[in-house]
Write a structure and sequence with these properties.
With about 130 residues, the protein is an alpha/beta fold. It has helices at about 25-40, 85-95, 120-125; strands spanning about 20, 60-65, 70-75, 100-105. Pfam families: FeS_assembly_P.
Length: about 130
């Protein structure tokens, strides 16, 4: 796998790396990455006024050479009332990004989510300082 995204040292803490195959040009990767992030930011946990991307619930995004996207995500708690629905919301949002061939969402709980994964934007939205 070739990482066209920022080198690991430049990635924001607790942000998913976008891994891609060599067959995708850097320009197309930038377009897909922006679209995927925008789609992820459109999905909210109904009990929390922050999107799943800023909450740090997205652990990994992989785009293969056919533009199929695989996402590893978690929940704020394993017993989340929308645990069965949220992966479908993510799949539907990312599937709508032009150029995405398909989406698979994997629910993972390792490492467990904690508040340190939240962005500054999410902390401001939740008034958590």
């Amino acid at each position: 796998m070739n990482e066209h995204a920022k080198p690991e040292a430049e990635l924001e803490p607790n942000r998913p790396a976008f891994a891609v195959r060599d067959a995708i040009s850097p320009h197309e990767l930038d377009r897909l990455t922006d679209g995927i992030i925008g789609a992820l930011k459109s999905v909210f946990d109904p009990e929390i006024p922050a999107d799943i991307y800023e909450l740090g619930l997205i652990y990994r995004v992989d785009v293969d050479e056919s533009r199929f996207v695989t996402i590893d995500m978690t929940l704020t708690a394993p017993g989340c009332p929308v645990a069965g629905e949220m992966p479908v919301w993510v799949q539907n949002a990312v599937s709508a990004v032009p150029g995405v061939a398909g989406v698979e969402v994997n629910m993972v709980f390792d490492p467990p989510w904690d508040q340190s994964r939240m962005s500054e934007e999410a902390r401001i939205a939740l008034d958590m300082w």
